[in-house]
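User: If you would, consider this record:
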Amino acid sequence: MQSPHLLVHEHQDNVGVVVVEGLKAGTDMLCVVTADNSSFQLTAKADVPIGHKIALKDLKNGDTAIKYGEDIGKFIADVEKGGHVHVHNLKTKRW
C-alpha cells in the first residue's frame, strides 16, 4: 500500500496535515482519515511543506478551521480545496 501524503484526524475536519517532504503542486495525494483508516484522493494546489495544512474543501474568509475535530482558528482569506493553509490565511481566535 502507498504511504499517505496527508493525514486527517476526524471526518468533520476541513484541513489535513502534510506528512511527506517536498509535496508539489499537482500531486494526487493519498489522504487517510485516522479515525477509521478510510482514505480519499485530493490534488495539491500548491507546494506545501511537511507539517503544514491543506484545505479539504473550498473555505471562505471568516470560516472556522477544524482539525482534530476542534476549532483551531479563523480563515482570514479564501482558500480553495487542495490549497495551502498556514499563517498567511489562518489566524488563531485567541487574540
